[in-house]
Every structure is written in structure tokens, then in C-alpha cells.
Amino acid sequence: MVQEKVKEKIYEILTAEGLLTGDQVQMIKAKETMQRAKMLKAKSPNIRHKVLYRSFLSLIDIIESLQIPSPPPGNGFLAAETLLKAMAKHLNLPFIKVDRPSEAGFGSGHQDHLQALCGETSACPH
Q: How far is CA 117 from CA 31, 32, 113, in A?
């Protein structure tokens, strides 16, 4: 239940910051489970074995993997860093880039980025 509230807060922030439209949010929600499974399946079996939590792939990972076009004037697709910077801006927090791979050797550690970004701030969706 908490996980769903966090996701909704992330969608709310990214929509308010102009990175996602309502239609894109609905598309992400519809594809999230299948995209998560696809991403996990693409990893080698020994890495999948180490993934203990379904949430190991963050919503940021999922959004980035769906290659959603950046809103104008941007070109390309929404990247994790762009999404996290928008969240920091919305929460009036400085963006701190944390380049630390996850302990399982898989993924980009966006949960770490989000926690580092938010710290213990109660307004943060973590």
C-alpha cells in the first residue's frame, strides 16, 4: 500500500514538472508489470537470483526503460537523471548525483539516488 502511494506521488511530481502527461502516466501504469518482468528476465540468471525485492527496479528505472520522449524543447528520451532532477526541484531540494551501483551488481541504484536526494525529508516519496 505504501509503495502505491509513493508511485502516485512520483507520477504527481513528474506531471506537475511537465515531464509526463496524464496519458503517459496511464501508459506507464499499464505497462509497468510487464516491463519489470522483461527487465528482470533480460538479466543473467545469477543476477536475477540476487534480486530479493520486486521493487529493486524502481519506478524511475521503469519509466526510463520505456523510452518516453522528452518534452519540448528536449530531444531524446526521459533519462533517470532528468526525472530525479525534476523531483528535487519540485521538493525544493538540491540534486545530488550519487554514482553508486547497487549491491547486487545490477541496476543503476535509483533508489539510492532518491534516498540521497531526499534524505529524511517527510515530503519525499520514499
A: 27, 24, 6
